[in-house]
Design goal:
Radius of gyration: 19 Å
CATH class of the largest domain: Mainly Alpha
Order of helices and strands: HEHHEEHHHHHHH
Number of helices: 10
Shape: globular
Strand order of the largest sheet: 1-3-2
Oligomer: single chain
Largest sheet: 3 strands, antiparallel
Number of strands: 3
Strand content: under 5%
CATH superfamily of the largest domain: GntR ligand-binding domain-like
Number of domains: 2
CATH topology of the largest domain: Four Helix Bundle (Hemerythrin (Met), subunit A)
Helix content: 55-70%
């Protein structure tokens, strides 16, 4: 889809034409694809995004591209510089900290409620996800692992019939996700993250809200412990 750049640059959005689903809103698809390219490090800080070239790449008019860029700007992933262009932003430590704070508050509430009344079907779905996580962790497939990681937390919200909680998290965790991706190369081994997810699952399965809450806090603390190392190792990725 979107080609990977190997160093920080101001190259435009690369890659061949991407065929979108004609039955889904184009602006949402463009937003999702570019967001994932930024989070997954295919588009690096400083990369320039051309509205015209993006419209050609996605085979759409400029309007859905413009709408996608507005949303990406609100997420703190890109910035528009007058007379210069639109660029992928460096990571904001403040946005990362804010996202982590809000995520902990929401996820603690989610797992505590799930521990009180999760059903057999929801537990089976989470167990299946964990088994897939373990497989991808062993093969060091970071991209697939992150997809399963998000699906695990989304399924927790669905298990209490509150998908809106996950949607709220999606809106505020973009910069946090960029740090999460960088952490997978050194600071946060995939199998260790899988074990943390397993601890959350076991507490919920045991109907122990206090243990579930503690497991989520420990899981999200991973970012606090690793942030200094990540920001030092990748200093050019972060805003001063």
């Amino acid at each position: 889809m979107l080609a990977r750049t190997e160093s920080l640059s101001k190259q435009p959005l690369p890659g061949p034409v991407v065929k979108l689903d004609p039955y889904k809103p184009a602006n949402q698809q463009v937003y999702g694809l570019v967001r994932q390219a930024i989070i997954g490090c295919s588009l690096l800080p400083g990369a320039q995004l051309s509205e015209k070239e993006m419209a050609l790449q996605f085979g759409v008019s400029r309007q859905p591209v413009r709408e996608a860029l507005i949303k990406l700007s609100q997420d703190g992933l890109i910035q528009v510089l007058p007379q210069r262009g639109t660029f992928v932003r460096r990571i904001s430590a403040k946005r990362v900290a804010d996202g982590r704070f809000i995520r902990e508050a929401l996820e603690v509430a989610i797992v505590e409620r799930a521990a009180h009344g999760i059903g057999t079907e929801q537990l089976a779905r989470l167990e299946c996800n964990l088994q897939e996580q373990e497989q991808e962790a062993r093969s060091e497939n970071r991209e697939k692992f992150l997809e399963l990681d998000d699906a695990f937390h989304r399924d927790l919200a669905q298990s209490i019939d509150c998908i809106a909680a996950w949607q709220s998290l999606e809106d505020i965790k973009a910069n946090m996700d960029r740090v999460r991706y960088l952490s997978l190369f050194k600071e946060s081994p995939l199998l260790a993250l899988t074990m943390q997810h397993r601890a959350i699952f076991d507490a919920i399965k045991a109907h122990d809200p206090a243990a579930a809450s503690a497991a989520v806090r420990k899981h999200l603390d991973e970012l606090n412990f690793s942030f200094a190392s990540i920001s030092t190792r990748n200093s050019e990725w972060f805003e001063n």
